[in-house]
Amino acid sequence: MAGAPTDSRRRLGAELRRLRRSADMSGPDLARLLEIGQATVSRMETGQVRPSIETVRRWLSATRAPRDVRTRVLQLAEDAQVEVSGWRSVFRGGMAPQQRAMHAFDEAAIAIRHFQPFMIPGYFQPAEYAKAAILGFRLTDEVTDIDDAVQARLERANKLRRRTKTPYHLVITELGLRLLPAGATTKARSNAWRSLLAATELRHVTVQVIRADAPVNQAPVCGWMMYDMPVSAIDPLVVQVETPAALLTFTGADVQPFELAWDRMVSSACNPEESAHLIRGLLADEDH
Length: 288
What we know:
It is built from 13 helices and 7 strands. Helix 1 runs antiparallel to helix 5, helix 2 packs across helix 3 and helix 11 packs antiparallel against helix 13.
């Protein structure tokens, strides 16, 4: 995925550029050897695009890098597969741009898998719930674009419903369903449940709930989103994890633990029909 260069990508890009120049090769020359676009070579060298490990191996071979250099550059490439973006950086310029940046991942993906142990995902949040949830991620007491951020989140939800060719699979804990962000009313939470229940009727949406008393095969220490990308993408699978301090992005071999954890979470969850029944029960209890 393209994006703001991280330190690891910058260092890797600088090394790749140095190797190309040491081999007395132009960008177009190397691009032809690697069978990629010249613009992609340039963006890799500036850290705008993270190359795959296989692309780095081919780059090292094409530039005839010495063995010790190969080892060092491959380590840099491994480090670049996990990106850490501090929230001060993520929210620079406001909270709305970060919300809209997530649209790009949704639109690029061919399938989305989402594990959420802590709250109802943004795709199903009504405005009141969304505002309370977004404010829970603020870094300071001063937030000037909260209404724009909420609108961006609602736009993302609408796009999910319309993007019928992109399967979306959610596994959420019952405790996550019940969580009520400070500032949101129980009515707002009920509306979120209704939105989630309505989504279960969509062919491209799958919802599974892990009951509060269900035995789990994997500790739900965090939530994550798994984006399966087209075969043409540099990274076939991208995983994003939100923490209180940073947004983490994993690719390459580092996504394998998430694949295993996902399978374990699915095995601990109710099937889709039982999950929909559970959500209906929460609504019935709320109405009484």
